[in-house]
Specification:
Elements lengths: L4 E10 L2 E11 L4 E5 L6 H8 L7 E6 L5 E4 L11 H5 L5 H4 L3 H10 L14 H13 L5 E5 L7 H16 L3 E5 L3 H7 L2 E6 L2 E6 L2 H13 L6 H16 L12 H8 L8 H12 L4 E10 L2 E11 L4 E6 L5 H9 L6 E6 L5 E4 L12 H8 L2 E3 L5 E3 H7 L16 H14 L4 E5 L7 H12 L4 E5 L3 H7 L2 E5 L5 E4 L2 H17 L3 H43 L4 H30 L1
Parallel strand pairs: 3-7, 3-8, 5-6, 6-7, 12-18, 12-19, 14-17, 17-18
Antiparallel strand pairs: 1-2, 1-4, 8-9, 10-11, 10-13, 15-16, 19-20
Helix pairs in contact: 8-9, 9-10, 13-15, 19-20
Length: 586
């Protein structure tokens, strides 16, 4: 089957840097390609060129004439005065929108509890981003090009999106996805393109298969690639030890993976880290006693009693607005509880990675900002690490070392913010959406540091892969003021959320069925009226053909042509009569 889009010998650069060098590739129906690579290596540039939003310096891109391409960009969609209905639904009124069950499911999952007649100017950045995603998903496209589609989605919405896209790709939809969410990439993709050093390497299978293939390639690389290879080996070991779904891809060569990681230890020694943490922290970290917190009359936390000990690695999930960031702020002392009290250990040295990066001085230089904190620090492994070495590990090399912080991208500022936190040598680390704007290679570096970091770790993240990778237990804020342990992790959270939705929906089902029955009745009546109208027209056509045949009785060639038209019209009338009888029986 012909490709939807093809790139031939594409070369493109900015300034003196070449991002793509003589790249040729194509994408066909049903293919779902995940695009990975470091920030700045050319992922978004590749997407813009393939969608012809950007002309390459050399080479050409061809797109099938009949193909419809939907693109989710980082920029906002629509104008401030337009409504969600105008942009996402093309202005459809409720009675038209209600006919499309798939559209209702998408809107309900990605824009829950949001009035469709709200103006875009009244929405937050995250809400407006979700409107853009819904707009693309509801379009009749052959190819979807999605740039970070999981941004601003919680784990429940991400799981829905993965299921929805998987179902559509089975029907032939093609997709090109840039994402740093490795769980999402593994759930939806059947190919991976890695953009690096001006080239695009293609791998069959999802993210797990890509990790294996990349490790195999790195095993044959030069000795100076040893550190990167070890990080990838550790990530592969995590993938193989994780949930069975991660290793069920048909292209994932399990035997080769087992051979590769048979001597690879677990990512961290949990008992040793807990003992080390206890030595640094003592027995007490946080004790929450009947803690309550309310905002504008809404109870986010209700009588919460929770003891958090040394060395615990806790993941926290919940729907947007359930109070996750509020709970982190309470633990960090940035807010005061409305009721109850929070006891903190005497030896706590707490570092808090918030979602904001405003605490960085835009006028400062990268290397200077780090050196002022500490020239050398001793990592939990005992290894001395200079500021310049740590900066290199986190992707700051060359000119980036002397760049102004104000000139850094969002991902680079996030990396620098996390590095500065590590240099303060905290024993309690609170991370609020730490994966925002970070590429996959940087995430593996962060995970590697956290593997040997001894202390109490509390993480809020919508990145399911990262959450399961660095934490040992998962708790959920369920939106009713409670915080509960999830023995089965994120899977249990999603199951609980589905059960809660079923409880809410179940009482309304009889009324929905009645409305549905009435709607079907109206639809059948409309269908009968439509068929009757067509029958009247075809009968008139047949009568007219009889008259023309009488007039052309001596023109045998014309008569034969009219006879063929009459036979076709008669056959069409028979089809319409049969359809009318079936509709009348229903």
């Amino acid at each position: 089957m012909a490709n939807i889009v093809n790139a031939e010998h594409v070369t493109h650069g900015f300034g003196t840097r070449t991002l793509l060098d003589d790249v040729s590739l194509g994408l066909g129906p049903g293919e779902v390609v995940g695009v990975v690579g470091r920030n700045g290596d050319g992922k978004t540039t590749l997407l813009r060129i393939l969608t012809r939003d950007l002309l390459p310096d050399e080479g050409r891109v061809t797109v099938s004439n009949s193909a419809s391409i939907g693109v989710l960009r980082q920029a906002h969609v629509g104008t401030d005065e337009q409504t969600i209905r105008d942009v996402a639904l093309g202005g459809e009124p409720d009675h038209v929108f209600a006919r499309h069950a798939e559209h209702r499911a998408v809107v309900g999952a990605l824009l829950p509890d949001i009035d469709l007649d709200r103006r875009l100017g009244t929405l937050s950045g995250g809400e407006r981003r979700r409107v853009a995603l819904v707009t693309v998903l509801l379009g009749p496209h052959d190819l979807l090009v999605l740039d970070e589609p999981t941004n601003h989605l919680d784990v429940e919405a991400i799981a829905f999106l993965a299921d929805h896209l998987a179902a559509r790709t089975r029907a032939g939809l093609a997709m090109l996805v840039v994402s740093h969410d490795r769980w999402f990439l593994d759930a939806v993709c059947n190919r991976i393109w890695e953009v690096h050093d001006g080239v695009v390497d293609a791998y069959d299978g999802g993210y797990a298969a890509y990790v294996l293939a990349r490790v195999e390639r790195q095993r044959q690389a030069a000795a100076n690639e040893a550190r990167r290879r070890n990080l990838a080996r550790k990530e592969l070991a995590w993938l193989r030890r994780g949930a069975p779904a991660r290793t069920s891809k048909p292209k994932f060569r399990i035997e080769a993976a087992n051979e590769l990681i048979k001597n690879e230890p677990p990512p961290r020694d949990r008992l040793q880290l807990e003992q080390f943490a206890t030595a640094r922290l003592g027995k007490d970290v946080f004790d929450l006693i009947n803690v309550g917190y309310a905002v504008d009359g809404r109870q986010l936390l209700r009588s919460l009693t929770w003891s958090i000990g040394p060395g615990e690695r806790i993941g926290l999930v919940g729907v947007n607005g359930a109070g996750k960031t509020t709970l982190l702020d309470l633990l960090a002392g940035r807010r005061r509880a409305s009721a109850g009290k929070i006891k903190r250990g005497q030896t706590i040295r707490l570092a808090y990675l918030s979602q904001a990066v405003a605490e960085l001085d835009d006028a400062d230089r990268v290397l200077d900002s780090v050196k002022r904190l500490k020239e050398e620090t001793k990592l939990a492994t005992g290894r001395e690490a200079s500021a310049s070495n740590l900066l290199e590990d986190f992707g700051f090399t060359g000119d980036k070392l002397v760049s102004r912080i104000g000139d850094l991208s969002g991902g680079e500022r996030r990396r620098l913010q996390f590095l500065r936190l590590l240099l303060t040598e905290p024993n309690v680390l609170i991370l609020d959406e730490p994966t925002n704007d970070l590429d996959i290679d940087t995430l593996t570096v962060v995970e590697d540091y956290l593997d040997t970091w001894p202390g109490t770790l509390i993480v809020v993240s919508h990145d399911r892969y990262f959450l399961e990778r660095v934490t040992d237990v998962t708790y959920a804020l369920l939106g009713d003021g409670t915080c509960g342990l999830l023995p089965d992790g994120v899977d249990e959270y999603l199951a609980r959320r589905r059960a809660r939705v079923e409880e809410v929906v179940a009482p309304a089902r009889p009324a929905e069925r009645a409305r549905s029955s009435a709607a079907q009745s109206r639809a059948r009546k409309k269908e009968l009226s439509r068929l009757e109208g067509q029958l009247e027209r075809i009968e008139a056509d047949i009568a007219a053909l009889h008259e023309r045949m009488a007039e052309a009785a001596t023109d045998y060639a014309r008569l034969a042509e009219l006879d063929r038209e009459l036979q076709a019209a008669t056959a069409r009338r028979d089809e319409l009569e049969e359809a009318w009888l079936l509709a009348a029986d229903e």
